[in-house]
Amino acid sequence: MGTYGSTAGTPVAGASFLDRDHIVAGPRFNRWLVPPAALAIHLSIGMAYGMSVFWKPMARLIQNAPASCAGQDFFGQLVTTNCNWSIPTVTPVFEIFIAVLGISAAIWGGWLEHAGPRKAGIIAALCWGGGLIVVGFGVSIHQLWLIYLAAVFAGIGQGLGYITPVSTLIKWFPDRRGMATGFAIMGYGGGAMIGAPLAVWLMHHLGNPGMLDVAHTLMILGVIYFIAMSLGALGFRVPPTGWYPVGYEPTTANAGKGMITSGNVHLDRAWKTPQFWLIWGVLCLNVTAGIGVISMASPMLTDIFGAKLVGAQSATALSAAQTAAIAAAAAGLVGLISLFNSLGRIFWASLSDKIGRKNMYYSIFVIGIVLYSLLPTWGHLGLAALFVASICIIISMYGGGFSTVPAYLADIFGPQMVGAIHGRLITAWSAAGVAGPFLIANLRQFQINHGVPHTRVYDITLYIMAFLLFCGLVCNFFVKPVHDKHLMSDDEAAHERALLREDRVAANAEKAARGQFGALGVLAWLWVGVPFLIGLYIALAKAAALF
After folding, report:
1. Residue 487 in 3-state DSSP?
2. What is the 3-state secondary structure (H, E, C) of 306-341?
3. Residues 6+ away with beta carbon under 8 Å from 320
4. Which end of the chain is more exposed for a tag (fewer CB within 10 A), N or C?
5. Residue 353 C-alpha from the chain's centroid
6. Each residue of 309-366: pLDDT tens digit?
7. Which helix (H) or strand (E) holds 374?
8. Is 23 left (phi over 0), alpha (psi -120 to 50) or beta?
């Protein structure tokens, strides 16, 4: 893979193996080796979306014990070993993952820019893989407090792992920012397609029908993800100062593109601009609407269509086979959601390279408003196929909103500190990850308590989601190029480049990273591609139950 150093092939004296100085690409490196390294990390941390496979088994760990710790208060359940946890006491693990993801990305995003992707990726691997191992240990000794604590460390791994590839990919692909970040973030959407079936297989293989082995499954997954993420981190290289793809000229490429800044905005200044908070609102509102549907997709399908999914008119006369078919259809929708969540990230982000980031968000908001508004109608008319198709498109745009936002930030604030700025921005995800599921679940329960039929309990919620997307559309409308007063001065830019050790311009930057793709590239892509394709096959097999 060539030699590495701050002058495109010469390591800096005293540089640590993990330091940014040690991973500057040499002449034989090929930039298409960076996306599989990013995918290795995102496919690993994307298992967060698949953690729901553990909730029911975690609520049945103690045989011949009370069904749940009904008589225990919250603090009692944290340390009890005499009764089973309820599902609501274990599901906060996912919420901790998402909340800490945003917080840790915001706190350490600036450090990550200076430390480089290799060091950040290794620490992310330690936190995520190690966190899952400790969660598994907490399950084995039945200590909920330890599971929550380990989830915090795993969430830190989520945050660092999520933003680690962003800045690096954008610098390697200035000509295809959306596609590059879409590749990486596609992995986060697809991680559950691989991890969830693997976890289910391991729990059954290591346990028995009456007692699935949750503890050892989590520990094994932690080891697998630590190895995969570490290999991805070791595969990262950064381009030498002054490097550009063949034929790319920044001044020519960005000419006439008013939404692409010609300079860079410092992290400390970027988050104080209106543009930052408008894009924060764009992401938060899109995610709130999408994650609300993801969290309730399976019960939504069965509540609205129920027996109609198998051609029956009433749930009271269903056979065991028909009941199983309805459950399989609901699981099939979950599989389709995983698929469209993942593929939508690369599709919409790549499209943004052609039509621009702002126009891409206009597109997903307008289409989303129309589809959310139509979902109640599809339900009333019993058009399950249109309902499912609309959900899949909505979820693809949910994923597309995630994958396009790093490129949007690079356009607006420049690529120099986009990883750190992105880290601050995804606090929008943390907020939405709590607001979306809370909104849809509580509105559903409120209407059920007031006698609304199950077939109509989502109508108001879906119209509210459409309104949230309209608010996002308004936020996107007001995003304008940053004023020149926010750009870093020459001295500030020079200081930042010095911190990144990019002040030593590579004498042979034009010749750096021009290597052939070769056998190493094929192996790197097979390494991440084969598991992804297996997960894709499993998702499609589950989705077949819908048809």
Report:
1. strand
2. HHHHHCCCCHHHCCHHHHHHHHHHHHHHHHHHHHHH
3. none
4. C
5. 20
6. 666 666 566 667 767 777 677 767 777 888 898 899 999 999 999 999 999 999 999 9
7. helix 357-381
8. alpha
Distance from C-alpha of 341 to C-alpha of 387, rounded to nearest angstrom? 16
CA distances to 174, 181, 253, 408, 452 from 257, in Å: 14, 20, 8, 13, 51
The residue type at 232: G
Task: Report the b/e string of 450-464 with b at 16+ CB within 10 A.
Answer: eeeebbebbbebbeb
Is 1 in contact with 29 (CB distance < 8 Å)?
A: yes
C-alpha distances in Å from residue 333, one per residue of 52, 55, 102, 345, 540: 15, 19, 28, 18, 10
Rounded CA separation 114/19 (Å): 9
The answer to whether 33-238+514-547 and 257-313+320-482 have equal CATH topology is yes
Residue-range domain boundaries for the chain:
33-238+514-547, 257-313+320-482
- Give the DSSP H or E segment for 457: none
Give every CB contact of residue 189 below 8 A, 6+ residues apart in sequence. 46, 49, 338, 341, 342, 343, 344, 345, 399, 402
User: Are the C-beta atoms of 97 and 151 separated by less than 8 Å?
Assistant: yes
Give residues with Cβ within 8 angstroms of 389, minimum separation 6: none
Extract the tokens encoding 65. Answer: 């014990």
How far apart CA 157 and CA 131 sit, in angstroms, is: 8
Alpha-carbon distance of 336 to 101, in angstroms, equals 25
Express as a percent the part of the chain with pLDDT over 70: 88
Amino acid at 525: W
Helical spans, DSSP H, in 116-213: 117-140, 144-172, 177-206
Crossing angle (nearest 10°) for helices 34-45 and 214-234:
160
Centroid of chain to Cα 356: 22
Residue 279: count of CB within 10 angstroms of its CB:
24
Q: What tokens appear for 274 in the block?
A: 């209106």
Domain 257-313+320-482: CATH superfamily, name plus number:
MFS general substrate transporter like domains (1.20.1250.20)
What fold, for 33-238+514-547? Growth Hormone; Chain: A; (1.20.1250)
Task: Give the tokens for residue 134.
Answer: 């400790």
